[in-house]
# Entry
Amino acid sequence: MTTPDSETAPVEVASDPMRPEAFAVRQVARETGDTFTLTLVAMSGPEPRPFAPGQFNMLYVFGVGEVPISISGDPARPELLVHTIRAVGATTRALQKLKRGAQVGVRGPFGTSWPVDQAHGQDVVLVAGGIGLAPIRPALYHILRHRALYGRVVLLYGARTPHDILYARELREWRGRFDAEVEVTVDRATVEWQGGVGVVTKLIQRSPFDPMSAMAMICGPEVMIRFASLALEKRGVTTASISVSMERNMKCAVGVCGHCQFGPHFVCKDGPVFRYERIEPIFGLREV
Ligand SMILES: Cc1cc2nc3c(=O)[nH]c(=O)nc-3n(C[C@H](O)[C@H](O)[C@H](O)COP(=O)(O)OP(=O)(O)OC[C@H]3O[C@@H](n4cnc5c(N)ncnc54)[C@H](O)[C@@H]3O)c2cc1C
Ligand code: FES
# Structure
């Protein structure tokens, strides 16, 4: 199986993309009060399952339901499937209850990916809000592993409160690097919080990247995507250089059922990563 290297690449999926494959939970890590990370390994053996940064899997909890969840692990370690999940409803809460050794059905990987290869030679600006850091993390792993291929690398991350910050240990490591700029802000501070307060889009104004040569990748709530794109455009980044990851309800994940329709696009097949210039005209319209 090959994986696409950009949101324009064709999507290739397993031979029967509708049949879940059995995986076992190898590790459960609590991230925040409502968010956790599952590391899964295939029951059939540890052979690599290549994926591209930004792609997602359908996770099936037997007897409960199936949900699309982005892959949040390292593309250079494709034998481990890593998913960071926020428990918001029936299926994600059932996933939260799984213990080491439990079985999960997995279909995928599906969808388009962050344009990490097209960004060679350019500055990269990653903007994430809340759980949106999970789909962005594989892109950052890839970029930092191939650091010499990129210009400046900037990660701007916003969480609701300090308690909602994902991957705190890794954020500290990335902040400690001399070759990456990492800024974290929260909407509401606690007394012990010493970092920035305010919306993540505010960070874009003073961030050290060259707008003429920057590729931006945004993942978070739609309102945040809209304001982040506006702030980037204000700095001079064109909509052709901005990619965003979209979410819609999904069933088949292979462009058949129509559940994920977004204007003329199917988010499962044409996305979830879109060039912003492709979807800007319909972005935020209620009826799409
Ligand atoms: C391509 C793609 C990638 C995704 N990646 C991730 C990921 O990496 N991690 C992750 O935690 N989630 C991710 N999601 C969202 C995830 O699929 C949903 O949270 C999940 O389907 C909810 O299913 P449920 O059965 O638990 O809740 P449901 O019973 O379907 O919903 C319960 C309640 O939660 C609300 N809800 C549903 N989805 C969301 C949401 N996304 N955000 C906030 N409230 C919601 C519903 O409106 C409802 O009120 C992704 C979605 C897509 C389309
Ligand atoms: S989920 Fe069926 S078409 Fe996208």
About this structure: Confidence is low (pLDDT under 50) at residues 1-6. Helices lie at 90-96, 133-145, 168-175, 201-205, 222-235, 267-270, 276-279. Residues 222-235 form the longest helix (14 residues).
